[in-house]
Amino acid sequence: MGSEDLDETVEKILNGEGLEVTGFDSVPEQLRPVALRKTVCYIVSAVIFNAKEEVLMVQEAKRECYGHWYLPAGRMELGESIQEAVQREVREEAGVDCELVTLLLVQEQGPRWIRFTFLAEVTGGNLKTTAEADSESLQAQWWDRETPLPLRCQDILTLIDAGLKYRRKPWFPVCQPVDLPCEVVCQRLLLAFTNPKNSDEERLWLLLGDHTVDADAEMLPRLPVAAVTHTVTWAGQRLVKKCMASSYSALNVKVCGILGVQHNGRVHGKTDGLCFNTLVTLEYLDEGLVDLHSPPPLESEGYRWQEVTNQSLKMNILQRIKDASLLPLHSLY
Predict the structure, then answer these.
(1) Is the model's pTM score more than 0.85?
(2) Which residues, at least 6 apart from 329, have a Cβ–Cβ distance to it below 8 Å?
């Protein structure tokens, strides 16, 4: 494995690009492909503002929340990409076409329920009126966020606030899901350990898994990939516990956020999975008890620490950690 190969791999992940999932480092005994609407449910929603910073809302037609208001949202359908699902829901419920600005927030309750919220802009169409009411919605309107409105659920207020914040001052790069297939819900970890900031030189190590071999027998670097069985955040915890069992209780494993999302739902039951490329950091809970100048010792075969010597790449990773300029990931457990 050459350092240039590792640099290229990490740069792709940092830039929000995707990489084929070729294997898993942390998996349950029985790992089966997920199937949309059977073993996983993906929700999409859109936060859309007009020039007055009013937010687009739709009035629900469903019996259990009839007449209440919510963001355009709904479940992904078979064969859809994440982007296609958002645009379809906005068109069906609000009557307008939209362009997706960026993935804004990901929320999850484990692999069975994941919601993708996008910031979007209207590109055409007309707001649905009461004369056009159907099973999707009763009507759509712009809401100034001050006039009292009976909401279906208060959870959308957080999404609206995040959309306003990003619209006024983006705090992470534009993120759009990458069209790459995956059989399960998994997390690729850019897992970093740094020595103390008061050291003479700040150093950075990344955890690497076993190398993979391509058709030309070239050794390639591989970032660890963990299957998600509980929550996306816990998948990283499980991998660290596997690799660093003796040190685990002394470590803080922090999922900083998402660098990119990979999905391709074209083949039902085979490509309904997702891969979250995430930045994860390790730090010691008690800095006075350990040698902080070296990463935790590894106790599982097939893993090793690789120090990042490319100064540009190292500073890029360290800056992302410092600024927290990543797509937010929230576990709802």
Answers:
(1) yes
(2) 106, 107, 108, 232, 233, 255, 257, 258, 276, 278
